[in-house]
Structure of Peptidase S8/S53 domain-containing protein:
Amino acid sequence: MRRPAAGRVRPLCGAALAAALLLPLAAPAAVAADGKGQELPGMPSALDPDAAQVECTPASGEKAKKQDWSRQRLDLDRVHRHGTGAGVTVALIDTGVATDAAGLGDRVTAQAAAGEDCVGHGTFLAGLIVGAGEGEARLTGVAPGAELLALRGTDERGEPAASLVTQAVRAATDAGADVIAVGVALPERDEELTEAVAAAREAGAVVVAAATPDPPSRGDTDEIPARTYWPAGEPGVLSVADMLPSGARPDGVLPTDGVDLVAPGAGVVSGGPRGDGHYLGAGASVATAYVAGAAAVVRADRPDDTPEEVVHRLTATAYPADIPQLDAYAAVTTVFGGADDAASRTDAASAPVAVRDTAGADSATARATVFVLLGTAGVLGALWVAFALPRARARGWRPAEAGGESARS
């Protein structure tokens, strides 16, 4: 008996097998949005302190072609439908900010030397807070409607000093900043800085600070003992650390305790002080900028909330994990306590919280996983039909016998 369509079965099966093998590889790529996949120069947090001559970070000749994972994780498109931080001032204490940098518009002012940014790190962070999102990649900040006051807490090379950070915190308080973001972290507590931070909080500012310095480029951080860094360790300060797309802390981070919140801090894309190119940045300072932007949007939406209530809102609406993960959309949209919202804010610490499960990027990944599983099952089913149906027909629909006697008959 002639086996029907044998020549057509092999190509069909080969194509189906190839599809089954390629499908699991293709689907995750469709939702990948990690900035590490883009060929961009890295943004340093400081320059070489031992170099004989200061050489500023050069302009990047590369531009991002897609939005990085961090903005998708924070669901910024949906956040901005509810608020952009308009009417709020964020003071950024870092290496300074170039007020005329691309993508920052006219929303940045600077005091004294903070208008120059040789390192480029402060300008990079400013883009994460108030970036306008121009261009193909739409690299918007969390609070593109807010005003940003640049203050320097470092020397020209990016080396922080307690006296400079203290001076900057006081200047931010005098300027009436609603949110103070400190991108540097000091290994020793300083009495004057402690007093300055307490005064800033008393004046009504939400103070957000990096839980650790950005990791050193050389050396083994496992040899560095865990310690508290400042001003993140001060009472009432929201201490922020960095996380990977998986939610885990990056390898090689400096050990610390008392972290209140984590936010995206690896493979993050933003601009710099020179040119219109882009860079990749990482570290607790990057995560701090994102949290400061979220605090600005919350303050704009709820101007009567105290700093304590804003901090509670950011941590209580965070995605639950070993260290809560910033959920900017939930922070803006969650309603505490029921009908009497004013009463619920009075007792915010004990109020029930409705937490959104995760950000848009995670949702897209889950949908892709389901698609892979269903698609693979369908392809394997087609493979079985392609192999089994012609053979069953060739046997006259009789069960197969040992040794292939049915086929030879």
Observations:
- The domain at 38-356 is CATH 3.40.50.200 (Rossmann fold).
